[in-house]
Amino acid sequence: FYPVKKVIQAYPGDELLVVYDKDFKYGHNFYLIGTEEGKENYLNAPELPEEQEEYKEYIPEDIYVYKP
To answer: Would you say which domain of life the source belongs to (predicted)?
Structure first.
């Protein structure tokens, strides 16, 4: 978690949301949601009708790519 150490330390809440992406849908096997608003949006996402589900696309605002 070193690449996102500052995000973790600056997080105002008690619990971070770390999500396992088993299908590598977003290019990594885990991703971290680093804001309370983002966490609430993820956990309480509105249900999409099945025909819209296939068009749902993730557009990241800020992606950090760790390069050792």
So the answer is: Eukaryota
What distance separates the 2 farthest-apart alpha carbons in the chain? 41
Amino acid identity, position 28: H
Q: Which two tokens stand for residue 5?
A: 């150490």
Over 40-68, what HEC string results? HHHHCCCCCCHHHHCCCCCCCCCCCCCCC
Q: DSSP label at 33?
A: E
- pLDDT tens by residue, 18-40: 888 888 887 878 888 888 888 88
